[in-house]
């Protein structure tokens, strides 16, 4: 019985070694089992770059300007006393902003014909331009236009509304510095 146990024990050992073929004449593979190589470790990711600090820069931005408060009596292009203060402020503005072009726009109330009011609105713009030129604003910095009774800002049915429409508006655009973050 001892021989049976010995043969059984030998069979278990041969089987555990990878050769389980009977009658135990040796391992037919005649090579040792090959171990599978372990997978290569995954590469570590590159470190994240440090955040870039925001960059501030100064740009020039266009800013529209409209100057109002220059009004006229009915059928007149003569400047009124309160117009002088406004026009002095316009002259100071033009001196402070030497690159600004002044668009001088004359308007009328809707009393009379379109053609009559067109001529009167042009004369109003010219009256303002002459004052500004006498106070240091170069003529080539002004663009004059009469609009007749177009673009009213008030009703033409009342004297107060007509007075508001009998006006000159000065429009301009200036460049202002603005800081932006990128």
UniProtKB/TrEMBL annotation:
Predominant location category: membrane
Domain of life: Bacteria
SUPFAM superfamilies (UniProt xref): OmpA-like
Signal peptide: 1-22
InterPro entries in the record: Bact_OuterMem_StrucFunc, OMP_bac, OmpA-like, OmpA-like_sf
Domain OmpA-like per the UniProt entry, residue ranges: 59-176
Pfam families to which the protein is assigned, alphabetical: OmpA (PF00691)
Gene Ontology CC: one annotated term: cell outer membrane
Alphabetized CDD domains for the sequence: OmpA_C-like
UniProt keyword annotations, A-Z: Cell outer membrane, Membrane, Signal
Cellular compartments annotated: Cell outer membrane
Protein name: OmpA family protein
Naturally occurring in which organism (per UniProt): Igneacidithiobacillus copahuensis
Phylogenetic lineage: Bacteria, Pseudomonadati, Pseudomonadota, Acidithiobacillia, Acidithiobacillales
């Amino acid at each position: 019985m001892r021989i049976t146990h010995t043969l059984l024990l030998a069979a278990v050992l041969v089987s555990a070694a990878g050769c389980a073929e009977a009658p135990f004449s040796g391992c037919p593979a005649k090579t040792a089992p090959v171990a599978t190589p372990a997978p290569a470790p995954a590469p570590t990711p590159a470190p994240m770059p440090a955040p870039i600090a925001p960059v501030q820069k100064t740009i020039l931005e266009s800013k529209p300007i409209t100057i109002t408060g220059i009004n006229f009596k009915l059928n007149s292009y003569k400047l009124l006393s309160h117009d002088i203060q406004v026009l002095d402020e316009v002259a100071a503005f033009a001196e402070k902003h030497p690159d600004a072009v002044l668009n001088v726009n004359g308007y009328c109330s809707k009393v009379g014909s379109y053609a009559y009011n067109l001529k009167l609105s042009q004369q109003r713009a010219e009256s303002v331009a002459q004052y500004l030129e006498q106070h240091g604003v170069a003529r080539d910095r002004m663009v004059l236009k009469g609009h007749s009774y177009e673009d009213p800002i008030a009703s033409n049915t009342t004297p107060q509304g007509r007075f508001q429409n009998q006006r000159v508006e000065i429009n301009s655009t200036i460049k202002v510095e603005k800081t932006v973050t990128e």
